[in-house]
Design goal:
alpha/beta; Rossmann fold; Rec A Protein, domain 2; 14 strands; about 35% helix; elongated
């Protein structure tokens, strides 16, 4: 049953709400889609950091360029505690992930699927070699999916919205469906901040939920604004004419409301508890 599955916070309250209030559900595949430099890895790093804070083990299957160490640390990732798995060869990397999942030690796995795009050496294989290679990788993917769905491990797949074609016309072989699809779009606020708008959908529902994350280039996620966005989404905070109202107190601007939340941890906790309560959740 879904309600019996373990869940993992994305590290962002408003995104957890968009995902159905519980965050990422164990045993489910969540595909993070977006163009190049749209913020896909940022969402993944925030999730890894959140799971690590609770003592969970996370694995990252890295593409050729590897993990962006500087940016991941800005997002709060503890690289010393992150299990980084080289994606080459594909079959071996997925088998390693399967072993971690089956050992029940792994809480979250992030897979950058760019390594599944056929690269030059693979695209130059003969048709028979190509077919054999594809069969091996598809079998590894099927085994991974089976191991994942039988576990409580969370899974994030980072994928491009538009996959570049190869000279041979061969493309990604990652074809199994995701339980949740997160489409990420990035807009620049100023030289230090940018905004990520995340649209969350699932194949069994027509509704699309939205989350907004404001990221600072040196400090990461803006927690006060995250709480405000979550409050608005939950109906606890109202937003009218550029101002906000909570518990019959009106704040004339977003900046004023953020300063109050940032300067008063008890107030922030009270607001978070009310947000979670309104969603039928308990805040631990």
């Amino acid at each position: 049953m879904l309600k019996d599955k373990r869940s993992y916070s994305s590290g962002c309250v408003s995104l957890d709400i968009a995902l159905g209030a519980r965050g990422f559900i164990g045993g489910h595949i969540n595909e993070i889609l977006g163009d190049y430099d749209s913020g896909k890895s940022t969402v993944a790093f925030l999730s890894i950091a959140s799971v690590q804070k609770l003592g969970g083990l996370c694995a990252y299957v890295q593409p050729k360029e590897g993990v962006d160490e500087i940016w991941s640390e800005v997002m709060g990732v503890d690289l010393e505690q992150l299990s980084v798995i080289d994606a080459d060869p594909v079959e071996a990397s997925l088998k390693t992930v399967n072993k971690l999942i089956e050992s029940k030690r792994l809480s979250l796995v992030v897979i950058d699927t760019s390594f599944l795009l056929f690269q030059k050496d693979e695209s130059e294989k003969s048709d028979s070699d190509y077919a054999a290679y594809k069969d091996r990788v598809c079998e590894a993917l099927a085994q991974f999916r089976k191991a994942l769905t039988q576990s409580e491990c969370g899974c994030l797949l980072i994928n491009r919205s538009q996959i570049p074609s190869t000279d041979s016309g061969r493309s990604s072989i990652l074809s199994f469906p995701a339980d949740k699809e997160l489409v990420v779009n990035k807009s620049v606020i100023d030289e230090d901040e940018f905004r990520l708008n995340v649209s969350v959908s699932s194949p069994d529902q027509d509704e699309v939920s939205q989350a907004e994350l404001v990221i600072h280039s040196k400090h990461g996620l803006s927690a006060p604004l995250d709480i405000i966005c979550a409050g608005v989404a939950a109906g606890v905070v109202t937003n009218e004419n550029g101002g906000y109202q909570y518990n019959e107190v009106r704040y004339s601007s977003q900046q004023e409301f953020m300063r109050v939340i940032e300067g008063n941890s008890y107030f922030a906790e009270e607001l978070l508890v009310e947000i979670f309560t309104s969603l039928g959740m308990s805040k631990s």
